[in-house]
Specification:
The complex is a heterodimer of chains A (168) and B (147). Chain A is α+β, with helices and mostly antiparallel strands and 168 residues long. Chain A has 5 helices and 5 strands, in the order H-H-H-E-E-H-E-E-H-E. Helix content of chain B is 37%, strand content 25%. In chain B, helix 2 packs across helix 3. Chain B is elongated and about 55 Å long. Classes of the chains: A alpha+beta (168), B alpha+beta (147).
Chain lengths: 168, 147
């Protein structure tokens, strides 16, 4: 306990692991949530707070907060835009697309030729499909001649959204 | 949802404080009380307006397997296949999309080796080919919805 060495190769201190297991389905909605986690694990709350901050610092925790259901907030046009761009240009193009305010995730993924030629993925969110089309047009303009083909896959239903479980 | 609920949703997508009374600190910024904020967050969770509240872990940094997968599911089998795929605890998110590849899900496993095993198990259960599209590079991740 209290070991400050936290490598990023998937090994955590035993306490980090316990904290992850105790919080991955969410923080308890009580006045002192970190105290409740501390009581549950059986350590002092100062350790819990220190380890949470350390995990935020080293990137294992992106942030602590709320994840809204974007459908319920009126963002019903959610398009996964996919682009076929030259592999030798994808670094600079991906960074450009990722900087757009309406793009929430931007990744390079493998192609499946011949029927799936897209290698750049950008999630675009809008209040309706027209808004997503308009934003995708902006990406197309930005990519210019490097855009060889593209498509937008709209989500029509959330089938599951439990989030990622780290496991016991 | 009233104006304060909207403010809460916007504000709680930023960093929630790590201190003894974090709801009290957040409530002060929002112009309400600790008790009211807790009740409202609980209600937003119950109404499924919020899907999660807590630390958002970066699965990349955990040394496990992580991938985006897609299946072309025949329309008439969609519900059955959904049930089979969702039954795997390694399936974290699953979305229906309007494309021939109409089912897209995120697979997260404890070890990289478990990812391949799970992919094979899903293929065996559904009788369908799973396209495995792990990210080769991340350019940006930053979810934030202003309302």
């Amino acid at each position: 306990m209290g070991d400050s060495h936290t490598p990023l190769d998937g090994t955590h201190t035993p306490l980090d692991r316990e904290i992850i297991l105790a919080t991955q389905s969410g923080l308890p909605l009580v006045a002192e949530p970190y105290q409740q986690i501390a009581d549950q694990i059986g350590v002092d709350v100062s350790l819990i707070k220190a380890r949470l901050l350390a995990m935020q610092d080293d990137g294992r925790i992106r942030r602590i907060g709320a994840v809204p259901n974007h459908y319920k907030l009126g963002y019903t046009g959610n398009g996964m835009s996919v682009w076929d761009v030259p592999d030798d240009q994808i670094q600079i193009l991906g960074e450009m697309v990722g900087k757009l305010s309406f793009v929430s995730h931007c990744y390079h993924r493998p192609r499946f030729l011949p029927d799936w030629s897209y290698n750049l993925f950008a999630m675009v969110h809008g209040r309706n499909r027209d808004e997503v089309f308009e934003k995708a047009k902006q990406i197309e303009v930005l990519l210019g001649e490097h855009c060889r083909a593209h498509d937008i896959l709209f989500s029509t239903r959330i089938l599951k959204k439990t989030g990622i479980r780290i496991g016991a | 949802m009233d104006e304060l609920d909207k403010k809460i949703i916007n504000e709680l997508q930023r960093d929630f404080p790590v201190c003894d009374h974090p709801f009290a600190v957040a409530a002060e910024q929002l112009g309400t009380t600790e008790e009211d904020l807790i009740v409202r967050v609980q209600r937003l969770m119950d109404e499924k307006i919020l899907t999660r509240f807590g630390p958002l872990f970066n699965a990349d940094r955990f040394g496990g397997g992580l991938s985006l997968c897609a299946i072309a599911v025949p329309e008439e089998d969609f519900d059955t296949v959904t049930e089979k795929v969702n039954a795997f605890p390694q399936v974290a998110h699953n979305y229906q999309r309007d494309h021939e590849l109409n089912m897209w899900f995120v697979l997260a496993t404890e070890t990289p080796a478990e990812l391949d095993v799970t992919l094979e198990a899903i293929e065996a259960d559904t009788g369908l080919t799973v396209r495995n599209m792990p990210k080769l590079q991340e350019f940006y991740v930053g979810l934030h919805f202003e309302i």
